[in-house]
Amino acid sequence: MLYTQKRDKTSSEKDLIERARDNLKNPPRNLTGLGQGRLVDVGPLIMGHRLSTRETFGAYTALTYEKGSLVLRMLHFLFTDTQTGEGQAFFDMMSEFVREHKNGTASTEQFFALAGERAQKTPLGQKYGYKNLDWFFRQWVVQSYFPSYRLEYHIEDAPGGGAMLVGAIFQDGVPDSEQWFMPLPLVIHLPGGKMARGTIAAYGAKAPVKVKLPQKPEKVELDPDLWVLSDKTSVSKQ
Question: Is 13 in the same domain as 45?
Fold first, then answer.
């Protein structure tokens, strides 16, 4: 995905991401053809080769390589400054992990320990105040839920000028017993061809959203570059 984006600078990367997402919704293969349900529900990434059974042929490849790459891409997003698009911190962290474990063995837990230590220093880590990535590891590696995100909003006049985007971000397809948390990119298109980028955070089934804007927006997009893995992401104006 990174390669095609750098090579083409077109929609090639997005096509690969959409294809990988769609594959997660397909049923697993079994001895007689197609099984029941969706590949994404077979099990979490942490299961590794145990994902493939007589009833779930191909689940290991689809989940480890396709879902796994999408989860790693989400980690890339968490290390990226959403306002500037600068994501070098992610590649620096990856290089450091390789140097630490060169010619040796490494575990998933060791990887997330380093990533979590570095993530708290990123713009998003400082904005939301998380000290590690245990929450990310639990949600996306240890569990197999496939959330959907929905932003509902309206625009109000802001005191002192400008505008206020007010609404809520809904998170469906996750357990009610856990307060799932995930930052999502928000892209605001303003008059005159201007654009503003930032993030809003989904927390639990429904979280309030309030964003101060210099002008009334012409268009609002939630994660248009597909950084965050989801079954569906949508925006509606109230």
Answer: yes
